[in-house]
Structure formats: C-alpha cells, structure tokens
C-alpha cells in the first residue's frame, strides 16, 4: 500500500491487515507501552484545509506514539490565505522532507491529486476530501464494529488479552449496519458503504430523498426512507447490528451562507423522521450499538439520551481512531517490517 486515498481501493485482504494491525497497536497501548520507536526519524505532516478536532488530533497522537516527528499545517494562518496553490504547498512539504502527508481538503479529489501529480514522494493519507471519502473514519468504524460484534468492548472479555484472536473480531460478513441521515454530503457514508461491502456486511442507507446523492442506486447497499422499519428489522436484511448516525452538514447546504447542495431541513421535522431518540433506541435488538463519527448535532440527528446511552460507542470510536491511524502510518511507512517485532519493541 503506497497511499490511503479511498476505501474503494482497498481489497478485503488489505482492509483486514489494517484492522488486525490496529488491534496489535491497541494492545501496545493497553500494555502501557505508550511509545514505539517504529517511525523514529520519519516526518508526518498534517495538512488541514478544513476544520477538524478528532481526525487531526488522532493522527498527531498516532504519529507521536510511533516516534515520528509531526508538523501540523492548518490552511488558516498559512500562506494559503495569500493564495498559495496546493502544488506550491506540496513542493514546500517535499523540500522539508515529509514522509507522509495527511490531508483534509474541501475539494473532493485533492488527496488523489497530491498522491499522483508527482509533486511529492511522500505517502498520502486522505483525512477527508469534500463529500468524497474519509477512509480512516470507515476503518475505525469497522474496527469498533468488529470488537463489539465479537462480544468484546474496549477492555475485551474477562481474562482475555486485547490481541487475542477472538478479541480481534472475526468477521463482519452477514452483519447489518444502518447508516442514517445526510448521505448527500457525507464522505463517512461513502467510505463506510464501500468498506463494509468489501468486508461482507450489509448496509441500509436511511435518508430523506432530498439528502440522497444522485447515483446512490449503483452503490452496494439498500436504501430506505423508513427509519423505524429499518431499526425494527422489517427490511430485507432483518434487524440491524449497528446504527450509524450522520451529522447534518449545515455548512454544505443552501441557506447557511456557504453551502449549495441542498436546503437545510426543518430541524423539528428532521428529528421526528430521521433522528435517533429514546423511543427508537427501544426498537433495536439488544446487542445493537449506536455510532456517530462526530461532531454531533445533539437534538437534531441524535438526542442526548441516545448519544449518552449505554449502547452508544461514540467515545470509543474516537479512542479506536488512534490505534487505526497508528496502523495506517505504520503500514505505509514501515510496512515491510514484521508487525509483531515493531509492536513488541519499547523505547525508554
Ligand atoms: N469524524 C471526524 O472526521 O471528526 P473531525 O471533523 O473532528 O475530524
């Protein structure tokens, strides 16, 4: 793997390798080995043209735990505001010796351009491009699903080590995930649909018709407008193992001053038809979990009761993101080394 740009490009073998490596990385953290020497001397640049809390901090933490040097570049306050192009920014990073560039950009396709234009020798990781892809979010979601659906949470079952084979989570094949809300603007939905399909899971998208993209019919998933029916298992694939709520992306919508893709829905109407609340939680099977990539609009796509319920794994998703991003950086920058050796080595 040279770059990580899209879940659509990942084979099942590559995806499982990342998820298994993530479990090994998580095991080092639970063994109180906070720092590995694996990427000592390497430089990871976080190149963020759009705001982020979770993804940027998570990549920074992951890179530091692998002993890489980290440069955080935010477009705000940089020469981008003076009109510097993506190409000239990339050439600057190349001159500074970046080994990996983690890029978030408002334009769909910007990471692909960085990876393939010949401006950089670095590995490029897509940290979210426009409405297109957010592959590490989908990977951390799959990692979280694997752990929960194999009967383990963050700690694993009593007596198990988090890197035991059973705790890794065997398989998502045949599992059913509902992805609910603003699919039109969601790179998280696109990345998850493709990754979950590759891993053999069934996905049902539940969304108002106005927030579904043109061409969704060709995606490898089912589509429904009936949230209650989907959660209660009335759809083709039966009950859901997880419900993943999507943020309503006001900033990409008309009437917000910046957007243009769709009109911002009436909040009360939206919450009534497509929000996850306490009543809808009761429709779920006992084992089903509630996910959200964050940041959440509490009271819109998810109520406070649902977000804070015992079924919600939203904070755990964030924690799992560090292990997954450690795995991605490790596989891109040192992936020919033996993973066990890399994760068994500590530094003072
Ligand atoms: N889930 C996610 O991408 O969150 P941030 O925008 O805070 O990075």
Automatic annotation (TrEMBL):
L-aspartate binds at residues 82, 187, 247. GO terms for molecular function: amino acid binding; aspartate carbamoyltransferase activity. Residues 268-332 form the Aspartate/ornithine carbamoyltransferase Asp/Orn-binding domain. Pathway: Pyrimidine metabolism; UMP biosynthesis via de novo pathway; (S)-dihydroorotate from bicarbonate: step 2/3. It catalyses: carbamoyl phosphate + L-aspartate = N-carbamoyl-L-aspartate + phosphate + H(+). Signal peptide: none annotated. One of its GO terms (biological process) is amino acid metabolic process. It comes from the Bacteria. One of its GO terms (cellular component) is cytosol. InterPro entries: Asp/Orn_carbamoyltranf_P-bd, Asp/Orn_carbamoylTrfase, Asp/Orn_carbamoylTrfase_sf, Asp_carbamoyltransf, Asp_carbamoyltransf_Asp/Orn-bd. It holds the Pfam family OTCace. Residues 2-146 form the Aspartate/ornithine carbamoyltransferase carbamoyl-P binding domain. Gene3D superfamilies: Aspartate/ornithine carbamoyltransferase (3.40.50.1370). Its EC number is 2.1.3.2. Carbamoyl phosphate binds at residues 54-55, 104, 134, 137, 294-295. Keywords: Pyrimidine biosynthesis, Transferase. Heterododecamer (2C3:3R2) of six catalytic PyrB chains organized as two trimers (C3), and six regulatory PyrI chains organized as three dimers (R2). Catalyzes the condensation of carbamoyl phosphate and aspartate to form carbamoyl aspartate and inorganic phosphate, the committed step in the de novo pyrimidine nucleotide biosynthesis pathway. Belongs to the aspartate/ornithine carbamoyltransferase superfamily. ATCase family. This is Aspartate carbamoyltransferase. It comes from Cellulosimicrobium arenosum. The lineage of its organism: Bacteria, Bacillati, Actinomycetota, Actinomycetes, Micrococcales.
């Amino acid at each position: 793997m040279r770059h990580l740009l899209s879940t659509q490009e990942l084979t099942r073998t590559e995806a499982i390798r990342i998820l298994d490596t993530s479990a090994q990385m998580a095991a080092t953290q639970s063994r109180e080995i906070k720092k590995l020497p694996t990427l000592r001397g390497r430089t990871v640049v976080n190149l963020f043209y759009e705001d982020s809390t979770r993804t940027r901090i998570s990549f920074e933490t992951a890179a530091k735990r692998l002993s890489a040097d980290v440069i955080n570049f935010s477009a705000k306050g940089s020469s981008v505001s003076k009109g510097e192009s993506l190409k000239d920014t990339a050439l600057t990073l190349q001159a500074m010796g970046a080994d990996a560039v983690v890029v978030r950009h408002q334009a769909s396709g910007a990471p692909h351009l960085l990876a393939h234009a010949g401006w950089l020798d670095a590995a490029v990781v897509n940290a979210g491009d426009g409405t297109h892809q957010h592959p590490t979010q989908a990977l951390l979601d799959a990692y979280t699903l694997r752990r929960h659906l194999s009967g383990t949470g963050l700690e694993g079952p009593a007596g198990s080590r988090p890197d035991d084979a059973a705790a890794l989570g065997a398989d998502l094949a045949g599992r059913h995930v509902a992805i609910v809300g603003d699919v039109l603007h969601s790179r998280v939905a696109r990345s998850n649909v493709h990754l979950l399909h590759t891993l053999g899971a069934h996905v049902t998208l539940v969304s108002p018709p106005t927030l579904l993209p043109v061409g969704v019919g060709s995606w490898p998933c089912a589509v429904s407008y009936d949230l209650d029916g989907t959660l209660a298992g009335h759809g083709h694939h039966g009950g859901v193992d997880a419900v993943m709520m999507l943020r309503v992306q006001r900033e990409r919508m008309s009437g917000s001053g910046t957007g243009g893709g769709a009109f911002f829905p009436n909040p009360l109407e939206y919450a009534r038809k497509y929000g996850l609340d306490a009543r809808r939680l009761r429709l779920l099977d006992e084992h089903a979990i509630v996910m959200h990539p964050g940041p959440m609009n509490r009271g819109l796509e998810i109520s406070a009761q649902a977000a804070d319920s015992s079924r919600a794994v939203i904070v755990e998703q964030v924690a799992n993101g560090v292990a997954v991003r450690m795995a991605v950086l490790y596989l891109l920058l040192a992936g020919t080394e033996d993973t066990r050796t890399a994760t068994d080595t500590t530094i003072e």
